[in-house]
Amino acid sequence: MTVLEDARRLLATGPLCDACLGRPFAERSFGLTNPDRGRALRTSLALEADEPYESTEPAECWVCEGLCGRYDEFADRAVDAVEGIDYVTYQVGTRVPPLVEENGDLLREEAGFAADAGEPLRKEFNREVGRRFGARTDTEVDFERPDVQLLVDLDADEVSVTINSVAVYGRYRKVERDVPQTEWPCSNCGGSGRLHGVGPCPECDGTGYRYWTSVEQEIAPTLVTALRGDEGVFHGAGREDVDALMLGEGRPFVLEVKHPHRRTVDLAALAEEITEASDVVEVEGLRFATNDMIERVKSHDASKTYRMTVEFAEPVSDDELAAALEELRGTTIEQRTPNRVDHRRADLVRERAVYDISGSTTDDTHATLVVDGAGGLYVKELVSGDEGRTEPSLAGLLGVESVVTALDVLAVEGEDEPFEQPAFFREADGE
Ligand SMILES: [Zn+2]
Ligand SMILES: [Zn+2]
To answer: Strand 366-373 and strand 349-363: pairing?
Structure first.
C-alpha cells in the first residue's frame, strides 16, 4: 500500500509526532485532524508489521520541535489576550519560525513528497488554536472581517490581538453656520497652534484650528470614548459648505472607531447625549454598520434640496424672477469647476440637473429660493454664474449680478435603506 510506504518513508527521517506525520496527507482524507491521520497511519503500520504501537511525543519531534503539543497552551493565551474586549467573531493567524518551516520542507524532500504535499504547519495551527479558542469563548470564526484578529507568533513566543474598527452610521443636522464638517487645522501654524519664535499663532489664537469646532469634533469624541476606542474617522455622505446649515432629515455619515474595546453600547442614548451637549449638531438614527457602509456613504452622490437667500445688485421684479426660474427648472447645467474650489482640483466641465427650483422676491433686491438639484450641483454658482463658468445661471438669465448670501441644505435624498448589521450587533440584539 502506497500510503503506508509513504508513511514509512516519513518516519525514516527521524522521530515525528502524530500531527507532523499526518500533515503531508492533509488533502488525502477529510473529516480528520492531522494528529488523527498520524495516529491512524502509525496504527496501520504497527498492525501490518505485527509490532507494538508506539507514539512519539511532539517534544521529541524533529519537525515541529514540540510546537504541535502546545495548541491548548496557545488557545489559553489567546483567551487571555482578548480579556476585557467585546467581540463576537475572531480569526487566528500564526507566524511559524523560519527554521521550523524549513524542517517541514526537508521532511517532504527527504521522504520524496511534493514540496506542497498536505498543508503547511501554519494552517494547522490556525485551525487547531482557532477551534479551541472558539470553543472556550463561545464565539465564531470569521475569515472576512472578524471583530478581533489574533496572531500566534511562535517565533517570538507571543500571542497578540488586533481589534478591528467598528462603523457607526447616523445622520446629522448642522444648526449653526461657519462650522466645517471635519477638523480644519490652521494653515498658518500647521495645526500646532504655535509659531516658532513667535508663540501662540495669531491666525487661530493658538487653537490650531481655523474654525472653533466641526461636525466631526462635535460627534466623534463621545462615540470614541463610549466604545473605548483610540480614534474616530469621520466619513460624510458629501458635505455642505462651511457657511450652510444642514437641516431636514440630516446628512448620512459613518464614524469609524478604531480599536474599540466595547461594542455593546446604547447608541440611541449616545445620540441624545451628543445632541444635548452640542449647540451645533443634532444626531439621529445611530446604528452599527458593516465596514462596507463606509464606502457606500463616501460614494453617496444623492440629490439635495437647498434653501437660499439671494441678493441682486439691481432691482428684480417677481415676474422677471419667475421667468428666469422657469428657464432653470428641469434644465441640465454645465459647470466648470468653480473658482472658489481648490485650484489643485482639475478644471472639468460637469453636467448636473436642476430638478426643481422655485421661490419669490422678499424685496426688490432679495429673494428666497428652494432648489432641488442632482448630487454635485454647485448651487452658489447656479445663482452667480461664476463669471460664465456655469451656464445657464440665474444671474445670466436675469442680466443682473446675483449672489447667495445664506444657504441651507433642507434634505439629502436617500432614506436609510436597510443594511446589514455586524455579527456582534445581531448577537447583542438576540437575533
Ligand atoms: Zn511534530
Ligand atoms: Zn494657527
So the answer is: antiparallel
